[in-house]
Amino acid sequence: MRRKYLSGICKLIYLITVILIFIINKKNIEISKITLILLVGINMFSFAANIFLSEISKKLKIGIILSLVIGYVIFLILI
């Protein structure tokens, strides 16, 4: 039962950060790089936590989380 609540909280955080990124992109709001890095980092962390709490196989969890980490590192390099 606890996992279900934690997963719901992670999904809610993910949804809020996606909406914030969409609003920033739509209105062409200028934000600093550190704010963008933190916003995308929170987004990735909540998505990875949701995957970790889901009921899929261990190898698939590791693969998805590893690909998220690699994608975030590439994002940091490109900024």
Low-pLDDT parts are none
- From the alpha-carbon coordinates, what is the Rg to the nearest angstrom? 14 Å
From the spread of the alpha carbons, the general shape counts as flat
Number of self-contained structural domains: 1
What is the mean pLDDT?
87
Structural class computed from helices and strand pairing:
mainly alpha
Instruction: Work out the helicity level.
Output: over 70%
Q: What profile does the largest beta sheet have?
A: none
What is the H/E order?
A: HHH
Strands, count? 0
So how many helices?
3
Question: Approximately what portion of the residues adopt beta-strand conformation?
Answer: under 5%
Termini distance? 40 Å
Describe this structure in words.
With 79 residues, the chain is mostly helical. The chain has one domain. Helices cover 85% and strands 0% of the residues. The protein is built from 3 helices and no strands. The chain has helices spanning 2-26, 33-53, 58-78. The protein is flat, with a radius of gyration of 14 Å. The model has no long low-confidence stretch (mean pLDDT 87).
